[in-house]
Records
---
Amino acid sequence: MSNINGVTIQKGKVGANRRNVKRAVSALIIGSVASADLALNTPQTVYNIEDLEQYGITPEFDSTNNLNVYRHFSEFFRMAGAGTELHFMLVDQAETFGTILADASETMAKRLLAFAKHDVRQLGVCLNPDETPTPVDGLPDDALTAIAAAQGLYAWADENHMPLQIFLEGHNLSGAANVVPDLRDIENVKATKVTYVIGQDWAYAETKTGIAQKFADVGTVLGVCSAARINQNIGDNEEFDLTDATRNAWMVPGLSNHKKNDEVYSQLQTFEDKGYVFGLEYAGLAGVRINNDHVCAPIEIDQEGNMNEHTIAYGRILDDARRQLRTVYLPKIKKTYPVGTDGKLPVGVRTSLELVGDAVFGDMQNAAEISNGKTTIDPDSDIMVEKELIVGFNLQPTGVIGYLNGTINLKQRI
């Protein structure tokens, strides 16, 4: 029999979303006094600076209280762009990195990340201390424990399926580069998810007084990271110029000791070698760039060629792949599959399940986010009793030219 409709085309079901729309989602926790329109420890979400001002956080809020709160937000949106999703929380100035990040009461960092529904990919934490911290080896006395606490927060977040990168404000730098600790070699700490920022817009800091001058511009770095592709170095010289002459932004780079870069020029390479993040000017290139995408961990490669996440980009790409793979494999859980006479998955079924992961890697490769990726299912996976599918994923990231080392000669003929 025929159908008088002629042609019937129904809408198919849409499977797991493989389009990444949340990579720019960020969060900020800032030590502050309470705003007249916003209580402390109250998570909120904003998409532009106008949204923020509705909570009473304005340039006047900063100037009246001699704080750098509005500053971090305005820099974030300047670099990330209006419309970027930003979750935030103001906490008491008396809070330390340790209390904010460990968050035993789950009223600060953990609460904010849960409030954001697992979407946050990068978090900045700034203190605005009201007293000058005790210096140890040129850094505040809690700097190294703060880095460890931030890595601990990552571990908690990762266990709850919301991996992220964390940027700490390296405020009140007081030591020279040869004195401060090597963040790539902290004893008993390998904080692959933590970045320590000591750079500041010196001209802006000059408008502040006292301890407020010794801040680091985490909002700027967080905004760049939010805008960057997941495999992109936040110091990309071609794309991320921090300077904006029309806004008088980042005309003079400095460090959180409130010294201009040119005052400590001979120390900058050592700060770079030790894994600190700051603004940098290059001879022959106008503007200011972030020096590099450091994390507080050494570079490690094992005998099988496995690398650790020794840059922000490597950490972001690995976590993003894990998030995507979890999303596409979740619908496959608790489904029924045939088994062979040996009680194992047949080759055809294993291949189809491998293709699920390979499709994720294929999308990332087509987007030039990775160089390659491969999914391999263990043929001995026991889905009859243990009901466990054992899968191996290998991801080859893209590379970054850190510097160019060349030779040039005058030639009579070429």
---
Amino acid sequence: MLNEMDPASLQGTHRPATEAAHAGEIAPRDLGTSVAQPIYQTTVHSFKSLKELDRVQTNPDEGWFYYRNASPNRTAFETTMARLEEAEAAVAAGSGMGAIFIALSAVLKSGDHIIADEKIYGGTFGLLTQQLPKFGIETTLVNTADELAVRAARRPTTRVLYFETLTNPTMQVSDVPALADLARQLNLYSFVDATFSTPVVCRPLQWGADIVLHASTKYIGGHSDAFGGIVAGRADIVKAADLAGRMMGVTQGAFDAWLNVRSLKTLPLRMTAHSQNALKVAEWLEKQPAVGKVLYPGLPSHPQHELARKLMPTGLYGGMLAFELAGGPQALDPFIGALKVVQLVPSLADVTTTLSHPGLTSHRSLSAEQRANIGVKDELLRLSVGIEDLADILDDFEQAFRQL
């Protein structure tokens, strides 16, 4: 039954057009707190006085005023990510690439130079080698596992050493503490993309890195329904990245931030399931005649397995692996076409198991020679192992291999 309105509440009501325009404006109540954060799908907030507005603009921690600067959902996401990474601060961006861009913008200017690992994600490769040169910023790509190569690449204008905890897609493990220490020796900032590992598996800031980056679209969101990126680490760099993001409009929307917060609630559970399944799948793939090579840091056969054990002491190595088909590139389509559970998807880190071909997706901007130099062969497939029942994943692979 509808509640009858108190006649006193009808006093001061407005004409229909005014009432309709102000629909949904509900004053906060003192009692009762939402268990799930509401979606603050508003681009702007109102104030009772110029003093209040000035107070919030002067001290952003006091409240919110315009979504490009900050929003309740974004703040919740940033605060939680900072705590998970044990960072001084964090700022969210509209995408993983946006996060990388504003983080680099925070410390670089025209004429500066970056040293980056040669096996970085193809999108990052494109940003560093195709876009940043337009702003007068150059990049030298090296094998960051080679200290002498890093030292040789340093210039007086070098400002950043950039690498990934686990390279995409070749799964090379970066020696985060050694590289962070080397960056300090060379007076450089150390930037680490930890998208593949997440703070559940590895926390680069604990090992001395200045900045950790994530494409939250991947494991942090985890369900292929939320877009975003995050920059966490030193407060001075994050503050500058936040300013760059506001000026450039690289903003994470309220709904994406809300979805990312929702997903963080299950991140440790999901990463445990992803990692446990991935290890079993990797061990199984190593035994298959149809598979030439398996790259997964949890395998004793991985070149940096002992380093992975040091950096990932919980025994979780993430849900990503890569493998090569022994039958070569010509076996790809028959194999992919025979799969029934595992889908071909040009992304990663969903709760379902998916395959991708880096040569045609993430690394298509590289030449064939460049891909070959970093180990991205035409027969290489990247596998994002989901949280399904392990037996169903293996059954699907087994029947697909039989058809080869």
---
Amino acid sequence: MTDDAPIGSAKPFDPALFLDPAASGNPQPFYRSAREIGAVVPGPFGGLEVMRRAEVEYVLQHPEIFSSAMEAVDLGQTVPLIPLQIDPPQHLKYRKLLDPIFAPKQMNLLEPDITRLVNELIDAFIDEGSCEFTTALAEPLPSSVFLRLLGLPLSDLDMFLGMKSGILRPTGADPAEMKAAQQATAAEIERYFAEAIADRKRQPREDILSRFLAAEFDGARLTVDEILGICFLFILAGLDTVTDTLECFFAYLAQHPKQRQLIVADPAIIPSAVEELLRWETPVAGVARVAIKDADLGGCPVHKGDHVGVSIGSANTDERALPDASSVKFTRDASRHLAFGGGVHRCLGSHLARLELRTTLREWHGRIPEYTIAEGTQLRYGFGLRQIESLPLIFG
């Protein structure tokens, strides 16, 4: 099979389309064309990409075949990202510890604080009649919530944003330079949290880091490396995915005024609108796995050691699972999307993310019901994580 040959089909397929800027901004037509070719197509960096809902769910639900360990994604760190890069049965230990911390009841206690923070951010720009949405709200909101949750100083926000970008968007003239920059940033993150953990050992506080140190599972406590792995994942998930989701949501709503008016007219539909926009936009467009056994996916052989990309965005818009998948309906009774993943590695922070998204849509549209994207703006979306380079909004 050549790099651009389809899998299980005579139709041509160019894996470079995964990196096409037009496809990243408007991915649904690309997803559809890939699914028409087969359940699995060649990936943009070698390996395979799973496109159809049934096969995506199979991969996510079978970690004994498709592992998310460090071999799947190496971000330059020396410790695995916990619990993401730990497979069953060890994975259960960490979820039993972390799930209660991020349970809906616990997260809902944060709603008044998140509501206040959203309005404080809006206060800073509403009289100007415009804002650069990312820097004005999409970045500072989830980042501030994250820092408060971990008991870290808000004065470190800019440093954390820099470290996050250094991991997810490393700079360099070639892959080797980019990997070296990523490793240097990873070492910086690990040093920071090692010092924070040592500080909590000396003087425990009422925060999550102190809870990690005190937690026990089957009579054993978490090691420093285990806590580092948890914190490393938190900084990436807590500082980036909600930011990207807010950008995608507001870019969509700014360009679809009739849909936006549904929210303004009836804020009660916001929870279902959030689910539908998560399905349609799918900001975390894909996740990575590595096969640890030979397998078959939709007639495509998968060999041990193969890198397998899982296209969450394509699965969420697969008409085989949802006949009217190409329609955006804020009033759907339920939206069985996979935006938070599936199986044992389903996103730990999904309840917090939903709370931040619902609160932001409610408070923003209660104060700024009409807005557009600044004239002449060409939205530039990233790949994998669909962040938007700049989102200038005009209102008034």
---
Amino acid sequence: MSKQKRKKQFYLLSLGCSKNTVDSESMAALLQRAGYRGADDKDEAGILIVNTCGFIQSAKEESLSALRELAATKKPDQLLIAAGCLSQRYGPMLVQEVPQLDGVIGTRRWMDIVPFVHQLRRRKHPEPLYHLPGDAETVGRDERNVLRAARQGASAYLKIADGCRRPCAFCTIPEIKGTLVSRPVQSIVEEAVRLQDAGVHELIIISQDSTDYGHDLGLKNGLSHLLERVVAAASGIDWIRIMYAYPGYVTDELIATMAETPQILPYLDIPLQHAHRETLKRMRRPANVDWVYRTVDKLRKAMPDLAIRTTFIVGYPGETDEEFAALLDFVRDMRFDRVGAFTYSYEASTPSATVSWQVPDEVKAQRVEELMGLQQRISLEKNQEQVGRTLPVLIEGYSEEDDVSVGRSYRDAPEIDGYVFVPGRLPEGEIVPVTIDGAMTYDLTGVPAGYQAGNTLITLDAVNTAAER
């Protein structure tokens, strides 16, 4: 490929969470608007971008590995750019790790990617360029009128806010992203309509703290207000899923909105992080565990089919045997549908790094194994309760080798939860009623409603006809 043709193509690798994926899609859209084309092969691109994650040590290592891999084969006419969270957090220190970097642009100014590329190409000296705004500048503003969503098949992540104002002692997000900035209600509603018109069936609401949406706009119960506006304008979207609810901010109004609105799935992701009061206080998290019991009870009474996902940090500094035992008891009591457990990651710039007693790594590993062993038993039992039910399943793919379609029920968020496996080829991107006939620890199996195992279904109309019978 000629250098001139390669000059107008970019290769963009997105690492980390779904929120990072949205930023990557937005950068790609801006580059395309400026006349660049995306390339699947890094050798065909004149611009190499890694949208990094720097939240914890393992994410930092993955990002550095990706940058070094691209740097090892980088051609003289190619630009290598580090973008995203790791860039924002470590800035010029990244070049010490990857000397071949041409530019470092922070996550707070992803929207400047096009002028940044132009600036790199105009530079007269080979030194790296940096575009790293300070604490006075945050994300969420001046978004260049670009869609703040990332589509994956019939699903789409829609970012409603950026940044976070919470004081969690273990978290680097406020340092990286800045404080909360909620996007305008009308912008989000218009984007939901665009996604509906593009054929999206599932809209996944994301931000660092979705339940804090609208605080900076002066909105009370801002998330409920936003959801009502989205539902009214984009009634053709079948599923709306809420991610990243903060403990203490799941209000009665939000519960009512979820329970009374069929489009909003009875699914809630609420990262609790721990269940012992003293641990939560050291984490600088809401420490009222009674609130969790009361609120989960309210949620389940309002939505009997509710699926709750949460996450826990195991081995947080100072976590005693008693505190960990309290976490296990809490998990037994609550019987969450989905649980993610992570060992504490030491981050030098966070307040948790100053806690004198760090839990040994071998104790962390033992505790996370014990916690997940408990949850696996609960997850299997919760899945077994689904056997015999007919669930709507969003079909995401088909394995020709196994002759099996793969999808997700309302109980399963993309990438982090389970799957439903159905024999035969079903219409990809459609929601199909499936009768569950088998349960595994994380996944389910089933057959299209009204059909016996072994039959192959080709069209959604046929599924619906069978279900009506």
